[in-house]
Each structure stands twice: as structure tokens, then as C-alpha cells.
Amino acid sequence: MQTALPVQRKAPRADALRNRERIVAAAREMFTEFGPDVPLDEIARRAGVGNATVYRNFPDRDALVREVVCSVMDRTTEAAERALAETGDAFEALERFVHTAADERISALCPMVQSTFDRDHPDLVAARVRSEELVVALMDRAKAAGQLRPDVDSGDLLIAVAQLSRPPAGTACFQVDRFIHRHLQLFLDGLRAPARSVLPGAAATLEDLRQA
User: Fold this and answer.
1) Does residue 103 contact residue 22 with C-beta atoms inside 8 Å?
2) What is the DSSP letter of 152?
3) pLDDT per residue over 57-99, tens digit each?
4) Residue 169: strand pairing partners
5) Which residues of the chain are in CATH 1.10.357.10 domains?
């Protein structure tokens, strides 16, 4: 009696992976410019692939939006992890996280999570938990090192990043790009210890954001 051999799954071809990456990159750009309802045909055209390639990778719009949001959170987290590995400086890693989040236009993409699909999808939850845990760990480490003022919490950081990297109403995203990093750095400098003022109210936590 012969024993059945396990099925050998082939790894995705390099060109298939490149196509998927091009689709996600094009979708990120177009979701930022036009919102989550941009036609998938237009995304395919910008990515330089056929419509069938888009649907082969992403069976519906929700799957594509989710992949875009997860990839943005993953790249933002990875940038902070690299900064910490390179310098050992928790505050510098926080700075990298904040500026990368702005470059990735996370403030324009994250509202889609609340309006287009299940916020509790396992992929999205995993990306969000990884990002939140890193921010908490970096802030705790920076406080312990005397770099970060003690009266702020992770919710304060995430709220400020979303607000400062989002263009004012009626203003095109790309017209205010030159100001975003300047204003974010002003905010980051205000996080440094010792604190120059007493903040009104209580620090915003991650739980506060979830209940908002």
C-alpha cells in the first residue's frame, strides 16, 4: 500500500507577486485621491494589468481595500522597527513611525475601515494589533529613558498623526504635502521631556479610541 505524498504547493511566481504589489500600490494612490469607490477598472489601468488580474488577486472591493490598509499599517510598523534596530532609540523610532504614517497617507485610508467592511477581519486585526503594540512599547521605552513626557499616551499620538497628516476640508492632499512633515515634527518636539506645559484633560488611550 502506497502512502499518499503531501501536495507540494508552488510559491507564487515573481511576476505574480509584482502584479499584486502594483495593484496594491495603484489602489492606495487612487483610494487616497478619489475614495474607496474608485472603479476597479481604473485601478487596473493605473497598475498596468488586466481586469482579470485584479479579480484573480482580490475577489471583491473589500478585499482590495483591506489589503491596502493592512499593507500601509505593516510598512509603517516596519519602518519604526528598523529605526529601533538601527539606533536603539525609542523616540527616534517613534518619529520614524509618525513620518512614515504620513507618507503612507494612513489618515486618508483608515476611515475606510469604518465605512466599507468588517473592522474585525483577522488580517486587519492582526495588522492593527502589531502596530498598536509597537507604539505602546516604544512610548513606554521612551518614557523610561526620560525622552518622552509622562502625561501622554498612545491614543494622543495616533489622534495627532491622523489630524496633522489629513488636509483641511476643500484642500487637495498633494497641495499640502510640503507642510505635513514640518507640522508633525513640531508635534513630536512637543512630546519630548521635560514637558514645557501642563496638558488639559486626561491622556487618550487606545481604549478611548476604540470607544470613540
Assistant:
1) no
2) -
3) 999 888 998 899 899 889 999 999 999 999 999 999 999 999 9
4) none
5) 64-211
Spatial distance between the Cα atoms of 184 and 167, rounded to a whole number of angstroms: 13
13-59: CATH topology is Arc Repressor Mutant, subunit A (1.10.10)
pTM of this structure: 0.79
Each residue of 162-199: b (16+ CB within 10 Å) or e? Answer: bebbbbeeeeeeeeeeeebeeebeeebeebebeeeeee
pLDDT in tens, 11-52: 457 788 899 999 999 998 888 888 778 899 999 999 999 999
Whether 174 shows a pLDDT value over 70: the answer reads no
DSSP 3-state assignment of 90? Answer: helix
Distances (CA, A) of 200 to 83, 111, 152, 155: 31, 27, 11, 15
Residue type, 154: S
Measured from the Cβ of residue 201, the count of other Cβ atoms closer than 10 Å reads: 6
